Amino acid sequence: MLVAKTHALLSTVFIFLIVLRKHIVVCEDADDFARIFRQGEQVRKNKGKEVLKYMNLSADPCKDFYEFSCGNWGKHNTVKEDEIKTPLSLLNTKINNDLISILEDQVTVDDGNTGRKIKTFYKSCTNAQRNGLTQEQFFSKFIKNNGGFPAVPASNWLIEHHNYNWQEIVSDLNKKYNTNILIGLKIDLNPYHIQENTLYIVNPNTIIPDHLCNAQYTEHTVLEALEYEVIEADVVENLISWLGMKSNDAKKIAFEILSFEFELCKAINLNVSEETNIMQYKKYPRNSLTEFSQKFNENINFDQFVRNSLGSPYYKPVIMTNEHYINALINTTEQHNKSTIANYIMYSALSLLSLPKDTDKSVRPRFCLDTLKRHLPEILSDMYRKKYSSISIRSEVLTLYDRLKNSFQHSLQNTWIADSSSRAGQRRLSEINLNWPKLDTNNLNVQFDIKNYWNNLEEIMSTVQPKHLTLLFSLENAQPSNEVFAYETRLAYKHTHRRIDISWGSLQTPYYRELYPSAMRHALIGQPLAEELSKAFDDINWTEDFLGIPHWDRHTEKEYAARSECFRTHTSNYMYNNPEIFQNETLLREIIAKNIGVNISFKTYLDWLTYLNPQHDHDMLSRETLAELNFTNTQLFFITYAQMNCQSKKDDKQNERYDILFEQTLESFKVNGPLQNSEEFARDFRCAKGTVMNPDNKCVIY
């Protein structure tokens, strides 16, 4: 009897302990929940303060919403000369710092063999001495092995100059180092056969920065202008420090080098590099290399040039994006002696391989990071993905993307779109997927010496360049050249692959957080996604697909053109106060896409609210606002969209001319333009009909 009672007592105690443990766990869970809730509230509170500090509440939102939302951005984000700061540029700076931290961390097991090698290369770069003995030895060997440097005694020039052929030297440098000096080569999708890659002859790399080295800019300036004097001074300093030249000799050679390149800059058209759709390259001439050689009277032997650059003959047609530049190159090289051309080529090559001036502690780490981005972006992307990807955010974005597609599907049923075109559009929409940065499975089959950056750099180039060239001859499915990597902040619609590439960088704090109200998240990532999605249905990508099959009937095509013209006129009136001046078709497509992105993402947000039935969930609706702000949830959506486009900058001379031409800035139009066409915006901010932000006539496509 006593034993039975004892067992009963022990059983009771045991059950009590189990119940007590469950209560403790519940309490622990409750504590965790409370902690997470407090953390979320603090994040939201801080975000509210941040949003508020950038706003100019004294401005009239119905007159200039950009000023209302971004009026104090410049006050809190001061810039240096010619510098620009936007929310995305600040995020990019943070991402670069995160990447540098990854590279500077101690090697761990998780890094694997490839990660260890990348960190070794990075440290060899940050430790390398600029203008030291190792660099001197490397440069000396490099010059002797690549045709000589006339300005430098004992550089093989006296031996080489009789047989010097600049086309052979440049193509050899291409093969070894992918330098793209004087003639640029690019491998990308073939717009005529998207299952394969093709070769493009494009603009070259230049010493003078792109924004100063183009036909549009040089038309209004001279080489003696201040911006070029700064570049010339850098060239002089480099010639002295790299090669031990005397000051007067360095000044003479520097002027010759930049004078030579300035003539070439006059023929470089930047619009070529702005093509975002591979199909647009169909407008450029496409011939065999032999035919291009004949077209330019054999002044350039393109067959031999490409053979040397690739290490193999190439018989298929190629696309040339700037015939005018090739003519200018021929004329310029004919007008200069071999010494000037050789000096230019060798300085250009050394400038691509040299270390930067360490003006402050941040310069070298950033340079070494950029070197890895240029040569080994896939591996760097994978290192970033491993640390900063999130399963929960991925799931959230995929769900949002599906809802955006659903909203877009309804827009494709507009009355101005014929039934046949609507059905074709909906089929295409169903095919467009979201593509995340892929896992890199390639091994880096090189060994690096932490004490010899220059040898390491040669190892990378000799390994990566042949691998890059194999893309041209690969029988596998071709991929676009401008792949989106995990550490980037851009999204990109890839027409030929029916997908939108998304990066992990665009989903990092403080730019994006799951704890932000859904209204903000629909603006921060929903709007850019919808903007990219809309590009599948513009006048280029929908009218014909990459096989040349038309998808629009004539009625729909005509209706789209009329709506597009409304946007062109609206833009021209805003920018120039004249309906006829603005004629930039590429920029017009971007403007239309931004308008559609705002409309679709806002509709998607409203559908989300309706689905959750917030009338019966006041707590949920209260979380859609920020305590620090006296704005509704829908107003918060538009403010968030506006602040995505805030910008502070100090104008250079080019921008001063820009401001004279433009009545308003493009920065403000990116915000005000789409919102002027939004009935919902006007309603939410109670803008009377006929006010600046609520004009009588509105432009709408989807």
In words, what does this structure look like?
This protein is mainly alpha-helical and 702 residues long. Among the domains are: 53 residues; 226 residues, Neutral endopeptidase , domain2 (Neutral endopeptidase, domain 2). The N terminus is likely disordered.
The main pleated sheet reads as: 4 strands, mixed
Structural class: mainly alpha
Low-confidence stretches: 1-27, 652-663
The CATH topology assignment of the domain at 129-354 is: Neutral endopeptidase, domain 2
In quaternary terms, these chains amount to single chain
The average pLDDT value, as a whole number, equals 87
Portion of residues in beta strands equals under 5%
Shape: globular
The CATH homologous superfamily of the domain at 129-354: Neutral endopeptidase , domain2
CATH architecture of the domain at 129-354: Orthogonal Bundle
Helix tally? Answer: 28
The total beta strand count reads 9
CATH class of the domain at 129-354: Mainly Alpha
**What's the alpha carbon Rg, rounded to whole Å?**
30 Å
Strand order of the largest sheet: 2-3-5-4
**Percent helix among the residues?**
55-70%
**N- to C-terminal separation?**
84 Å
Labels describing this entry:
three-stranded mixed sheet, Neutral endopeptidase, domain 2, 702 residues, 9 strands, mainly alpha, four-stranded mixed sheet
Write the layout of secondary structure elements.
Blueprint: H1 2-54, H2 65-70, H3 73-76, E1 84-85, H4 87-104, H5 112-127, H6 133-145, H7 157-160, H8 166-177, E2 184-190, E3 193-202, H9 215-218, H10 226-243, H11 247-265, E4 286-287, H12 289-295, H13 302-310, E5 318-320, H14 323-335, H15 338-353, H16 363-375, H17 377-388, H18 391-411, H19 419-431, E6 433-435, H20 453-473, E7 492-494, E8 499-501, H21 518-534, H22 554-576, H23 585-612, H24 618-622, H25 633-643, E9 648-649, H26 653-661, H27 666-676, H28 679-684
Parallel strand pairs: 3-5, 6-8
Antiparallel strand pairs: 1-9, 2-3, 4-5, 7-8
Helix pairs in contact: 5-16, 5-20, 8-13, 8-15, 10-11, 11-15, 18-21, 18-23, 21-23, 21-25, 22-23, 23-27
